[in-house]
Amino acid sequence: METIQSIEDRFNQKFHYDYTFLNDEPFTDEFIYLISTYIPQGKINFGIIPPEHWSYPDHINTTACSEIRANFADVPYGDSESYRHMCRFFSGFFYKQPMVRQYEYYWRIEPGIKLHCDVNQDVFRFMKENDKKYGFAISLFEYSETIPSLWSFVIDYISKQKSSRPELLPMLQNGFGWYNLCHFWSNFEIARVDVFDNYEYEQFFQYLDSKEGFYYERWGDAPIHTIGICLFLKKQDIHWFDNLGYYHPPYLQCPQDPESYINNKCTCDPDDDINSNENLSCKTRLSKWYQTMSQKQKCKIIRELSTIILSRRAKMCNVLEYRDSKVIYRRYASLFFVIGVDNDDNELIGLEVIHRFVEQMDKIYGNVCELDIIFGFDKAYHVLDELLIDGHIQESSKKEVLKRVTQQDELENMDEFEKILA
Ligand SMILES: Nc1nc2c(ncn2[C@@H]2O[C@H](COP(=O)(O)OP(=O)(O)O)[C@@H](O)[C@H]2O)c(=O)[nH]1
Ligand SMILES: [Mg+2]
């Protein structure tokens, strides 16, 4: 009820969209009555998931499964049977429910979540008008113990396809061509139903389902959705909802930009934002420090500078005094690049360093955007390390830097990819 109230208060009382509740068993009359009184407008659907969408497929040996579950007890939900049915359902069946299929877009809402900010924008209209297909709020790393064999099947699947190599595949790979475990946390999704409800994804799901990892391991729907999206969508189809104040225990995504924080009456603590914790979130902030200082000091500087710089207007000077040094920043579309230098350093060289860095990343990623840096951060660091050493320009030739980074990449990636496909 608290979740429904939060969604209504923060979003839906302005837009009156429908709700669909699905369960593997009938909802009680009391539940239906309460929900109906809490949601004053919009249609409410209550549906039952057919047993074949929430149970073992024929080829699974259920006795073996219960033995296997005992070995997974140390992994979150590792010993749970219903969690496995749930993950398989969200991976391959939610979009087949007639009550879901009747809509073009959906927002997945889970019990226990909360919105800490007003959502004044009609998110579905936003998706449609901007031709976005999949929206996420938080990205995380998966527990590797839950998917030991998944990536080898994905590689196997790709190698059997006639189509060209998926554009977003590198987003999923580490330097060795293996899955980097990064995934969109699928308890939040605002997406088109046909992102999953289509022949290509269905074939992919059927293939994975035949490999039995939903039950003999503990494959989650988050990595399955993420991999599906990276195989079949393009970068511009994906949108990051970064200002909803979305909370699903234990992680929170809280706006860092003071303007949207205040305008949307957020109640979360920006310091608790998951993206500020570089070890957890995939959105590793691209940061390089040339002076020794504690993690706490670094976080403080990043927070202070983000607040100062984001609140500056476009025509203001790109150099400012900060503590006992100077800060130089430059904006490229939605990306800000910021460097700190000593007071007696030349600001113009600072601006030039930023520009060179961006030009080189543009070449490497092809018009660099935020998602490139979030998922392909290793390349960005390679460029930076070629460009600067100990905070000083090491190589001023763009051509040289690009040549070395490309060579390094080719060596790392192609070698390993060929080996896996072989
Ligand atoms: N009907 C039904 N829904 C379930 C069951 N287990 C989990 N869910 C739902 O599946 C979603 C994810 O489960 P949850 O327990 O939140 O997993 P977590 O988010 O990974 O911690 C939530 O919407 C749950 O209500 C189950 O046994 N039956
Ligand atoms: Mg949940």
UniProtKB/TrEMBL annotation:
<keyword id="KW-0808">Transferase</keyword>
<dbReference type="GO" id="GO:0006487">
    <property type="term" value="P:protein N-linked glycosylation"/>
</dbReference>
<keyword id="KW-0813">Transport</keyword>
<keyword id="KW-0472">Membrane</keyword>
<dbReference type="GO" id="GO:0000026">
    <property type="term" value="F:alpha-1,2-mannosyltransferase activity"/>
</dbReference>
<dbReference type="GO" id="GO:0030121">
    <property type="term" value="C:AP-1 adaptor complex"/>
</dbReference>
<dbReference type="GO" id="GO:0005829">
    <property type="term" value="C:cytosol"/>
</dbReference>
<keyword id="KW-0333">Golgi apparatus</keyword>
<dbReference type="Pfam" id="PF01217">
    <property type="entry name" value="Clat_adaptor_s"/>
</dbReference>
<dbReference type="GO" id="GO:0016482">
    <property type="term" value="P:cytosolic transport"/>
</dbReference>
<feature type="domain" description="AP complex mu/sigma subunit">
    <location>
        <begin position="280"/>
        <end position="411"/>
    </location>
</feature>
<dbReference type="GO" id="GO:0000032">
    <property type="term" value="P:cell wall mannoprotein biosynthetic process"/>
</dbReference>
<comment type="similarity">
    <text>Belongs to the adaptor complexes small subunit family.</text>
</comment>
<dbReference type="InterPro" id="IPR044733">
    <property type="entry name" value="AP1_sigma"/>
</dbReference>
<keyword id="KW-0653">Protein transport</keyword>
<comment type="similarity">
    <text>Belongs to the glycosyltransferase 15 family.</text>
</comment>
<dbReference type="InterPro" id="IPR029044">
    <property type="entry name" value="Nucleotide-diphossugar_trans"/>
</dbReference>
<dbReference type="InterPro" id="IPR022775">
    <property type="entry name" value="AP_mu_sigma_su"/>
</dbReference>
<dbReference type="InterPro" id="IPR002685">
    <property type="entry name" value="Glyco_trans_15"/>
</dbReference>
<keyword id="KW-0812">Transmembrane</keyword>
<keyword id="KW-0735">Signal-anchor</keyword>
<dbReference type="GO" id="GO:0006493">
    <property type="term" value="P:protein O-linked glycosylation"/>
</dbReference>
<dbReference type="GO" id="GO:0015031">
    <property type="term" value="P:protein transport"/>
</dbReference>
<dbReference type="InterPro" id="IPR011012">
    <property type="entry name" value="Longin-like_dom_sf"/>
</dbReference>
<protein>
    <recommendedName>
        <fullName>AP-1 complex subunit sigma-1</fullName>
    </recommendedName>
</protein>
<dbReference type="GO" id="GO:0035615">
    <property type="term" value="F:clathrin adaptor activity"/>
</dbReference>
<keyword id="KW-0328">Glycosyltransferase</keyword>
<dbReference type="Pfam" id="PF01793">
    <property type="entry name" value="Glyco_transf_15"/>
</dbReference>
<keyword id="KW-0968">Cytoplasmic vesicle</keyword>
